[in-house]
Design goal:
The chain is α/β, with parallel strands linked by helices. The protein has 13 helices and 17 strands. Strands 3, 4, 5, 8, 9, 16 and 17 form a 7-stranded mixed sheet that branches. A 6-stranded parallel sheet has the order 12-11-10-13-14-15, with helices on both faces. Helix 9 (about 250-255) links the parallel strand 13 and strand 14. The chain is globular, with a radius of gyration of 20 Å.
C-alpha cells in the first residue's frame, strides 16, 4: 500500500509501506476512509519529538470500516464503521477503570514506531488496531466520517480541557490558541455553560471561527490579552485559562491571565524542561494547574450526542480535504496555516 511515512524533520513521503497484517487474536484491520493531520503530528514534523524510526506510517486520527478481525475479537465484524482514538486501550486496567484510558498500562500510540517497536499510523489505506474490542468505537449510521473523525482526538481533547477547567455558568474564561483543539475547547466550554469566553489567537480565520462558536475574539497582534481579560473581570483575571498551544510563551501567558485561586487547564503538548512560573509564584496565587493527555477512548461514546448536535461546526473545522497522495503538501499547508487552513482531512 501507499502511505505517508516519516523520514526526518520536514520530510514526509508518500511511498510504499507494508500492508498491515493480523498479528494477534485481538487485532483488527481497518480500511481507512478518512484520516486527519493533528497538531501533535507537527511536533514530530519539526523535530520537537524525537526517536521515531524512518519509515513509520504517520497519523493517529482515522475512521473507516473493519475489514478483518482476529479470532478473539467479539465486538466488531467486517463491515462495521469505526473511529479510533489515538492510543490503544485494554479497558480493564486500573487506569482504564478510572476513565483515564490515556494511561492504559497496555496502551500504545498510533503512528509511533521506535527501535522497531510500536504501531504504525492511520495516514494510510489500512491500519492494524490491537485490542480492537476495547480500542475501536462504533460510528452510528447517522454520523458522517468527517464528523466522526473529530471524535478520535480533537473533540475529546477540547472537552477534556473544558472539564479540567471546571467550567461553570457565570464564570469568565480565556482560551489560548484557536487551532482545532482550542476551537473544540470553546465549543465544549459553551456546552458546559460558559457565557464569557475570550479566545486569543493571531490568525483571522481562526478568530472568526472562535466568534462563530460564541467566544469573544482577542487578536494578540492588536491588543494585549492580559489587559482585555483583566479589563473585563474587574482586574482579577480569568477564572480558568484553557491552554491549547503547548509552548513556554503560552504557559506564561496563561499564568498572567488567570486570577488568584483560578485554574490553568493545559492540553497543549509541552516539551520544555521547566514551568514558565515558579512554585513560589503558583503558591502565592493559589493556582490550580491541570495538565495531561486526553483519555480520548474514555470519552468517545459519551460525545457522540454532542457530535450530532454540533455536526455543522465539526464539519466546518475540516477546512481542507485532500487525497492521501498530496500528504506532503498537506503537511506544509497545515503547518504554515495557508489558505485559511484550520484542519486537514486526508482521503486514502
Amino acid at each position: 500500500m501507499k502511505a505517508l511515512t516519516y523520514h526526518g524533520v520536514h520530510r514526509i513521503s508518500f511511498e510504499d509501506a507494508p500492508d498491515p497484517q493480523l498479528q494477534h487474536e485481538h487485532d483488527a484491520i481497518v480500511e481507512v476512509e478518512l484520516a486527519g493531520i493533528c497538531g501533535s503530528d507537527l511536533h514530530v514534523y519539526h523535530g520537537r519529538e524525537t526517536g521515531l524510526d524512518a519509515g513509520t506510517v504517520m497519523g493517529h486520527e482515522f475512521v473507516g470500516r473493519v475489514v478483518a478481525t482476529g479470532a478473539g475479537v467479539r465486538a466488531f465484524a467486517p463491515g462495521d464503521r469505526v473511529a479510533c482514538p489515538f492510543s490503544t486501550n485494554c479497558g480493564r486496567c486500573y487506569y482504564c477503570s478510572l476513565g483515564l484510558s490515556a494511561r492504559c498500562t497496555a496502551g500504545q500510540l498510533f503512528g509511533w514506531v521506535q527501535d522497531g517497536l510500536g504501531l504504525h499510523g492511520g495516514q494510510a489505506p489500512f491500519v492494524r488496531v490491537p485490542l480492537a474490542d476495547t480500542t475501536l468505537c462504533r460510528i452510528p449510521d447517522d454520523l458522517r466520517s468527517d464528523e466522526a473523525l473529530l471524535l478520535c482526538d480533537v473533540l475529546p481533547t477540547g472537552y477534556h480541557c473544558a472539564t479540567m477547567a471546571a467550567i461553570a455558568p457565570g464564570g469568565s474564561y480565556a482560551v489560548l490558541g484557536c487551532g482545532p483543539v482550542g476551537l473544540m475547547s470553546i465549543l465544549a466550554a459553551r456546552e458546559l455553560g460558559a457565557e464569557r469566553l475570550y479566545a486569543v489567537d493571531a490568525i483571522d480565520e481562526r478568530l472568526a471561527f472562535a466568534a462563530r462558536l460564541g467566544a469573544t475574539p482577542v487578536d494578540s497582534r492588536r491588543a494585549d490579552p492580559v489587559l482585555v481579560v483583566r479589563g473585563a473581570t474587574d482586574g482579577r483575571g480569568a477564572d480558568a485559562v484553557l491552554e491549547a498551544v503547548g509552548s513556554p510563551e503560552a504557559g506564561r501567558l496563561a499564568f498572567e491571565l488567570v486570577r488568584p485561586g483560578g485554574t490553568i487547564s493545559a492540553v497543549g503538548v509541552h516539551h520544555e524542561a521547566a514551568f514558565p512560573f515558579s512554585p513560589a509564584q503558583a503558591y502565592d496565587r493559589n493556582l490550580t494547574y491541570r495538565i495531561g493527555r486526553c483519555p480520548a477512548r474514555s470519552l468517545m461514546e459519551g460525545l457522540i450526542p454532542l457530535a450530532r448536535r454540533r455536526r455543522d461546526d465539526l464539519a466546518a473545522l475540516l477546512t481542507h480535504r485532500l487525497p492521501l497522495a498530496s500528504g506532503p503538501e498537506a503537511y506544509e499547508l497545515f503547518d504554515h496555516k495557508r489558505d485559511g487552513c484550520i484542519k486537514v482531512a486526508l482521503e486514502p
